[in-house]
Amino acid sequence: MGWNPRTWFSRRTLRKDAVAGLILGVEAVPDGLAAGLLAGVNPLAGLYGYLFGMVGAAILTSSAFMAVQATSAMALVVSDAGLDRLPDPDRGLFTLAILTGIIMVIAGLLRGGRLISFVPTPVMTGFVTAIGVNIILGQLSNLTGYQAQGPNRLLKTIDVLVHVGQWSIPSLVVGAISILVIVVLLPTRVGSVGLVVAVVLGSLCAVLLNLWVRSDVVLLRDIVEVPRGLPAPVLPDIADVPDLLIPALSLTFIGLVQGAAVSAGIPTADGRRADANRDFLGQGLGNVVSGLFQGMPVGGSMSGSSLIVQAGAKTRLSLFIAGAVMAVVVFVAADLVSFVAMPALAGLLIVVGWRAIKPSRVYSVIRSGLLPTTIMGVTFGLTLIIPLQFAVLVGVGLGVILYVAEQSNSVRVRAVHLEQDGRMREGDPPAVVPPRDVLVLQPYGSLFFASAPVFERKLPDVSRESAGSVVIVRLRGTDEIGLSHVDVLRRFASRLRDAGSTLKIVATEDRVISQLEAGGLTADIGADNVYRGSEWIGEGLRRAYADARGEIGR
Fold this sequence. Notes:
The chain is α/β, with parallel strands linked by helices. The chain is about 60% helix and about 5% strand. The strands form two sheets. It has a six-stranded mixed β-sheet with strand order 4-3-5-6-7-8. A two-stranded antiparallel ribbon has the order 1-2. Helix 20 links the parallel strand 5 (about 440-445) and strand 6. The longest helix is centred in the N-terminal third of the chain and has 26 residues, at about 15-40. The model has no long low-confidence stretch (mean pLDDT about 85).
């Protein structure tokens, strides 16, 4: 699907692809610089990440309109990655991008798309909400012109607020103008191009203030020299890999989740469903190319992808045109780019952070129950107070715990009644196994190790009065049974045997029967009490039921 020629180029749509690529390329210049600023690295690394990451990923992605860029969430992970502790922080950044790309490629080859389903909504809602808050808090220093001190963003925010007297009024004016322009223009037909307009107007205001009133609004050229041309390729530093492995894993997780959202939400050029695993491969290649050409880590961007679709793109050629536009800007307008004002970029990022906060999603999680709300709150709090790469991994762990908890509590046991006319009906099982009767039990749910205690509690009790009965446990629809559940059934069979009753098992899958043998249950109850089901629904159960009735004399 990703190699369909119609998704790459069409003469009939060349004009629309050119316009869409022009819009995305122009918008990506200030956005890329802002991503670098947000990550706390050379802003040009964000610009190069947008350019080379987007073009490199477009070669392999299944989603023809997936714009792979340096997203805000990934930028925050980079800012917490401890690059400043490395011997060469710049080389460490490029190594981090390449390492992230390699892990993404491995995830794609291993078809890791299915792993995304293990991240529950409460975890993602808490994480995304905290990302929005982190973006806003992280830009207060650039907005106010006061360089805050503190080990995390919350303490830095407090430091900014208690030093109001040291704020730079010109910086605040520039940031406020940028925010106002974005808020006014975004709902209009100008749309995302308003981001470019806002940064241009804010930067122009900063230059005028610096000239007329001798203010100290920080410009990009005050931080880094903007080169006229594209960067030369660099090689990664293998010695930095052990220190960068955890941030790379966190970046991979964030990039793949965001990429999966783009795959699901952005239409493909030929109308078919996107292949998430191919998109993983594309994002991986984009990161490798970005790192080789001095860019920061990148991932699937919903905002960039939505922009190019709304601008009228028809093939993936639009992404290559966008990259060419960015390259032209770097070659031709490098001197102008150097006058971009940091408060203007901070204003842009504050709007981005505000728009990332979705109160409706938070409210829906709160309404769903106490456990999801707690998981969301813990994820939100950890993302604010600990380095983001660890918060991401903790969030994944919480997601797994929530999944296990939900699955373990979803086990149900029903009683199956076989009528004389051949029909079967279900009902609640009795509290105690009745005497001289045939009781058929059907468990539902995932029979894995964590649900074993719940399964055991759902089984009827066995008393002295439960004599002369046969209990049939039907495992139809169960593809696998853990050894913990086999032990539960062995204990249940032992209690029945002590009461003078018998346990029979009906299973359809060969794997389940093998696990019953491996766990020792078949030896305990006898191979003749294990019935193999067939493709005829109920055939195995009816054989076991007929034998059971014969045993109790009915």
